[in-house]
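=== RUN LOG ===
request id: a7f3
mode: sequence -> structure
chains: 1
length: 349
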Amino acid sequence: MTTVRGRSATLTRGTVIALFISGMAISYFVAAISRGDGEFVPLGIFVLGLAIFGLLVVPASWLVEGRRKAINRTMTGLVYSAFGLALIPLVSLVWTVFTLGLARFDGQFFGSSMRNVVGDGGGALHAVIGTLEITLIAALISIPIGLLTSVYLVEYGRGRFSNWVTTMVDVMTGIPSIVAGLFAFAMFSLFFGPGVRMGFAGAVALSVLMIPVVVRSCEEMLRLVPNELREASLALGVPKWLTILRVVIPTAIGGLVTGIMIAIARVIGETAPLLIVAGFTQSMNYNPFSERMMTLPVFVYNSYSSQGTDAQAYIDRAWAGALTLIVIVMVLNLGARIVSRVFRPAGNH
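=== RESULT ===
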């Protein structure tokens, strides 16, 4: 059961595995006794088994390894358990969306819109196009403003104006999404009249939410660049603006791209501001500067809240839209990692 070297005794891996199997067996036995219908919840059995395993391994470690190692093993187990508990909602969410979304994850769903569709059939092509266009426009607005603002705060920001900009960024970070939608609606109503709905207005609303996230994330990444690199470049007579362009930004490019992708993921799933300013439609609209435009979050909301006689068809479309949104975010994150690796300076690992 143990391996002893002088005063240093430790539980063998086989012993720990045996205790883990015992915990799971006891958990299954308890579940079998408590439920007579033969139906079990695998996640509940696993969590209970982990708890029983902890109750078994802690006293065993205390007896064999001593107080110090037992406490260390206990704390390590608690950390891993907390990590596992934090993963449970994420894994459950992804698994639920994946399993339920596959029912309509087909060619028709991605090749057609909802125009003249009642009940089963139809697709979300118009929503996918709208999501990509509005998010792209919001990124084109937010990334230059956010990146330049973060460069100013890190490299040039001194005095009251810098403090004022920092305060405004902090305030914008906490703005509710529906307030951003109302702001964009009020602004566009001044120029185009009341009741205006267009994709570009939705992009402006999303940029209000996206800019502070870009500023904060890029600012932190730029501050991580060692000052020695700046000083070495300036000592060679390189102007400050060129030092920022050729030294600071390339060094932090991986973190900058990651921060930008976090900002995009923050806004791509927003529903409230797009309902207000972009509206929704069942037809294709490729022009973000004219008429209403559908997006995936609004498509999911509309499908789930406006169920017809064949309710299951609407629910299936809603889950498929949610799965599509998750896939888009995952693809964007994968692309961001590839870009950060490609443009990472040589020797910067």
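=== NOTES ===
The chain has two domains: 2-100, 111-342.
The longest strand covers residues 2-5.
=== END ===
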